[in-house]
Amino acid sequence: MTWSHTSPAGPAVPIHPVVVRITHWVNAAAMLVMISSGWAIHNAYPTLPFQFPAALTLGGSLIGGLQWHFAAMWLVMANGLTYLCYGLASGRLYRKLLPISPRAVLADARAAFAGRLGHEDLGRYNQVQRLLYLGAIADGVLVVASGLAIWKPVQLRWLVTLLGDFDTARLIHFGAMSVIVTFLAVHVVMALLVPRSLLAMIRGR
């Protein structure tokens, strides 16, 4: 089992640096607040003709949901920028998520469904993981952009226009949120199937 990497000089280095671990768990908590408060907002001002169970919402009303949503929004944005700036400055994003190719993604996906995809080296992402993480980052940008367009439709008229119109921006925001929820569900299932990965995100090694 590989719990950490070894540098050319010999000592082991963490699979996940402290910055990555902190931003990961802060993002997990903040996103849960964003999602549950967003569902409360949806119930009070529906984007689509259905309701989420009240027990899964946060805020209890439109005003309460908005207060929680905006509070978590700033945390998500600051935390996301910290993660991206660190990943770009350190080169970690490039090393972890690139290169990627459609053929390699299909090969790893077939191996995963056949139960032949190994998880011995936790420090190396397979092609499916790379695609999912890149997609999650792109979707995070989209959910923030569409959220800002909904929040300030007059001041950010250019952004609303770029997304189509206000109602389309709401649908995009809802769709991007749904993608995040799906990603989180898959992410949790995979962490439970490979518990060493969860320990590595807690301890770093």
List strands and helices in order, with pairings:
Elements: E1 5-6, E2 12-13, H1 18-44, H2 62-90, H3 92-97, H4 102-113, H5 127-151, H6 157-163, H7 166-193, H8 195-203
Which key features would you list for this structure?
single chain, 205 residues, mainly alpha, two-stranded antiparallel ribbon, 8 helices, 2% strand, globular, disordered N terminus
Characterization of the model:
With 205 residues, the protein is mainly α. The chain has two domains: 7-93; 101-205. The protein contains eight helices and two strands, in the order ββαααααααα. The protein has helices at 18-44, 62-90, 92-97, 102-113, 127-151, 157-163, 166-193, 195-203, and strands at 5-6, 12-13. Strands 1-2 form a two-stranded antiparallel sheet. The N and C termini lie close together (11 Å). Mean pLDDT is 89; it is low at 1-11.
Condensed summary:
By secondary structure, this protein is an all-alpha fold. 70% of the residues lie in helices and 2% in strands. It is built from eight helices and two strands.
Total of DSSP H or I helical runs spanning 4+ residues: 8
Compute the separation of the termini in Å.
Answer: 11 Å
Query: Which whole number gives the mean pLDDT?
Result: 89
The Cα radius of gyration reads: 19 Å
Helix content: 55-70%
Biggest β-sheet strands, sense, barrel? 2 strands, antiparallel
Number of domains: 2
User: What spatial order of strands do you see in the largest sheet?
Assistant: 1-2
* Structural classification: mainly alpha
Instruction: Give the tally of β-strands.
Output: 2
Give the ordered list of helices and strands.
EEHHHHHHHH
Unreliably modeled segments: 1-11
Note the beta-strand portion. Answer: under 5%
Backbone shape? globular
